[in-house]
Amino acid sequence: MINAFLVFNGQGQPRLTKFYTQLETSIQQRLISEIFTLVSNRAPGSCNFLPLPPLLAASGTSSSSSSATEQNDVPSLVTYRHYATLYFIVISTSTESPLALIDLIQVYVEALDRLFENVCELDLIFNFETLHATLGEMIVGGVVIETNMERIVAGVRAQGAVAKRPVNEGSRGGGGAGLGAMAAAGFQGMGGNFVWHGR
Amino acid sequence: MFEKSLYDLIRGLRNHKGNEKEYIQNCLKECRSEIRSPDMDLKATALLKLIYLEMNGHDMSWASFHVLEVMSSQKYHQKRVGYLGAVQSFRPDTDVLMMATNLLKKDLASSHPTTITLPIAALPHLVTPSLALSLLGDLVPRLTHSHASIKKKTVVTLYRLALVYPEALRAAWPKIKERLMDKDEDPSVTAAIVNVVCELGWRRPQDFLPLAPRLFELLVDGGNNWMAIKLIKLFATLTPLEPRLVRKLLPPLTNLIKTTPAMSLLYECINGIIQGGILGDGEDFSAREEVASLCVSKLRGMVSINSDPNLKYVALLAFNRIVTTHPMLVAEQEDVILECIDSEDISIRIKALDLVQGMVSSDNLLSIVSRLMRQLKASSSALAQQQNGLDGQDLDDSSDDGSGRRAKSPEQAAPLPDDYTIDVIGRILGMCSQSNYANVIDFDWYIDVLTQLVRIAPPPRTRLDSDSLSSSKPAVDISEKIVNELRNVAVKVKAVRPAAVRAAEVIVSRLNTETVSSRPVVSGALKPLAWVVGEFAFQLSSPDDTLRNMLGLVPRVDYPEVLATCLQSIPKLFAHVAGDDQALWTPERKSSLSLLMARVIHVLEPLAQHPYLEVQERAVEFIELLKLTAEAASGQAPSTDEVQQDAPLLLTQAIPSLFTGWELNSVAPGAQYNVPIPSGLDLDEPIHPNLGSLLAQADSLMLPTQGDDEFEVYYNQRPAPTSISSGPAIERLVDAPEEVSSSYQQAGEESYLDADIVARRKAERRERNKDDPFYIPDVSSSQTGTSTPIHNILQKENGPDLDIDAIPIMSLDLEKLSVSGPSRQQQHQPRQPRQKIVIEADETLGGSGGNSGISTPGGRPGYDSENNSDSFNLTKSKKPKQKSLLQFNSSVLGGLSLTDEQQPDDGFAHERQQKEEAEMAQAMKEVQRLRLEMQRANERIQVAQGVPVEGIVVAKKKKKKVVKTAEDTGEGAAVVVKKKKKKADTGEGKEGEGVAKKKKKKAPRVVKIDDDEGEAVGSQ
């Protein structure tokens, strides 16, 4: 299962936090900052998986000794992807497929790109409700329910029109670099290994 | 009044860079008032802003009631904000949730699909058992809603409901199964169901075997890779239960492996085959052989050097799973896996380490540990460079990116995070100490590694809450663990004890000289160090210096436990330094000893008022003892030329005899449990009949606070002089020239050991080989003085002016020397295995066989040393497991059977509960009615008596009456109570039995003291 889905920018400011188990706000923030430290220290060319942050590792290792079935409940995998100015993080248990999670993030970003038409960080800042809605069409309660782009986009649109970013903001903002372009590039970049057919 | 929208808030945030805090506080204040406004639009906007701020870490739990208000709005876009607020901000202790039940019911029955979706998607975040119970009836019908998106979300929500309230699944499962079996069902609903079934599957695989045919069908013609991955994962848990599935699965899986273009599916196929035990031995041998080699070769390809880092990582994950079932398959890949330890990517490194830890043997331990040491050394020196800033030419060169990149020396490595360093050190210790050091061949090497590790170890984290000097110690102090190992080696391996003690000596002196004298010593390493130097004082090379170092360290020690151990070691050292009964009692000795005693007393005196009792007691004891001795010493006149005087007996006999006696051996962690309780001992009997009052008295006593003490020390006493230690010779070798070639048997140990350690190793090697005529010493070293006997003789005879190399005793010159390097290596090699070392096992009492697998005497394979993770795990797993952060708790599902169709008596508990609830409601109504009647009657009486109606009186009476009536009303309530009682009874009975059994077990144990001490654990 998926334990949490996070989006934050290169300065560690959260843009979306979704925890599928209830957690104190302060602990949420600590976890985010721990993951941010890990993620921002990654060398280029590293893999898309992070070692467990200390907050999770402390509990994770202690239970690794217990039965293998118990382990399936404990978050053991932190997957991330980096697009332009943003980091997308998925914390999950071992029942999820690591490589599929990488693609799941890709689907999410592409869906956002469809909804916003060439999405950038600013869109996400000003429309974080749409971010939640899009995620809600893909994951409910930590279980993936949809991976088909058309259906995700249709589901979000059914809930109401997606607002565009304020016109005057786009040119001013520093974080306006196109995420959508990155999403497309990212897909090609990984394409050698992660080609999906029949999605 | 001007109101901000979310857009304004965000813009404001962006425009207030620098004083965001103030701005946010203002916004929060505004939100607080806005959210109370009756205008729903304003309320919803305020809530949206609060949600945004919550994401940035500003608590909004206070607003939970307003969240409910917005949730109940008629307008969809406001309702949506309300639900989002609930999802993001409600916590297990949010109490307004009770009030939400009806609202959720209403929204679940809404005619708009988008509105229905809101509660369905929010429920997984909010659900509690009682909420699940009351909403189950409304949720299940949504499984047949006309919209596919509602169906698939409902499936998942029902699963989450079942996690807190398992009975939900029993009610919903038939419907979910129906959806799964329906071939005309929307594919995305089927995929969602498969996802849920996969989550359920690993808990209770046996319940899902009947579904196998349908699942197989989906796998073969599903055409959805995401679903196929989940199906394979599910099948991997099913095959162990139904081996016949294997034959059916192999063809489609091999087909997928060969044809799929999606790497993730390929990986999961391989993973599934391995995990599902399909690789194992079976009848259809040739086919499996083919699959096995196919899988392993694919995985090997993934791990190999040039592959995608993600594949490397997941392949290591797969290996980590295989290693428990098929260690042989993994061992064959040792070469590529070891390569991963040096990967630049920490994630990959850690996974590789996990693997390697299980693969160590005496053959590869050395190479694995040296790889890790090299990493640590490089990172710590990089860190040191960073901290030192720009001093020295080397650094300038390396920061110049051109030369820095060309020179690919490990010094350029980026510093590793502390957590990783600690992790790696822990693993090194674990690997080496595994099975009572079975894998360590060369203990001298191990001691050097430990010495180096102490230097590399990151300092313990400074305590954030340093408000008190109490016994709060940092949880993980890796340097303490390292030195614990050193202590273990010193105790267990007698052959290298002198070396271990000397290593401890060096560390102590470094600790004293290298830390700032004004700063407290926080290293937990001091504790085992102090024990080693104290216990084995006779093996120190310079006990005087060590005593001086310890005296310098003690006043700066922060942690009382460490201090207590140090206190014990000081008199031991003192006894060794002063207690020589052969030496003459000369005036010099007398004066130097009285000075030393004065010094020790001076250091100990402040500790006599230490708040920690153990420290206080030890300090007082030793101070008094030393004062007595000092008196005796001053009373004893020194021996003159005529009169031979003996040293005071207190000094030479009494004090040393305190610490000499039986040699201490290590005791197995479980040994204490094996000591039988003497028949006459009753542990429940109080030690003192009046213990309670004694303790109360002790509490009322005021202990002098440390503050006064420090004040006094600061103004009235001289600070303890920090000794300018002369240090052992090894320290001075730091600057010794290093022209020697590095072709010794541990090739490249210079790369991870500090220069001084390497120098000492070389010196020792020279020492060892000085009588070996075939051993050719270094020319450079011959000039430093330690060399062959011939040299010594010559030097003595001829004086230092003579150039020894000019004398043609051996016609060898430098070139030949360097050529002869390899041969020297060959000669030396066989020494290692011949070294026979006795490693003592922990002592324990007999009969530990069944006792939780705690170590057994004789260093059997089951044995684990103190620092070894396995033994830790054993004890840990016994403790009630702490729930980890973010963890789902699906254990409740384990007890729920889905195939056993509902038995009439205990099935459909939720219905029964509903019935009970209805009864309860009825009873409550009855109570209410009675209460009203009573109240009225009361009022009538009061009016009749002319007493004014007083609220308090009435309230009191009301309460009493209610309790009474509740006791003797409705049968439903009574039934419930009875049931609970029954449960409690049975629970108690079981507990009682358990206790009885335990007692039985303990009593008749035969005491047998194994005489295994000193049993040879040869390391051939």
Describe this structure in words.
Chain B: Part of the AP-3 complex, an adaptor-related complex which is not clathrin-associated. The complex is associated with the Golgi region as well as more peripheral structures. It facilitates the budding of vesicles from the Golgi membrane. Chain B: Belongs to the adaptor complexes large subunit family. Chain B: Residues 779-790, 865-875 have a biased composition (Polar residues). Chain B: Pfam families: Adaptin_N. The complex is a heterodimer of chains A (199) and B (1020). Chain A has 199 residues and is of the alpha+beta class. Chain A has helices at 25-40, 54-64, 68-71, 98-116, 121-126, 128-138, 149-158, 167-172, 179-191; strands spanning 2-9, 14-19, 49-50, 77-83, 86-92, 139-140, 143-144. Chain A has a single domain, classed as Beta-Lactamase, CATH 3.30.450. Helix content of chain A is 48%, strand content 17%. In chain A, strand 1 (2-9) and strand 2 form a beta hairpin. In chain A, helix 4 packs across helix 7 and helix 6 crosses helix 7. The two termini of chain A are 20 Å apart. In chain B, helix 17 (309-325) runs parallel beside helix 20 (346-357). Chain B has 1020 residues and is an all-alpha fold. Among the domains of chain B are: 1-59, no CATH class; 140-201, no CATH class; 208-273, no CATH class; 279-359, no CATH class; 729-834, no CATH class. The C terminus of chain B is likely disordered. The interface between A and B is large, with 90 and 97 residues.
What is the compact description of this entry?
Chain A is α+β, with helices and mostly antiparallel strands. Chain A contains nine helices and seven strands, in the order E-E-H-E-H-H-E-E-H-H-H-E-E-H-H-H.
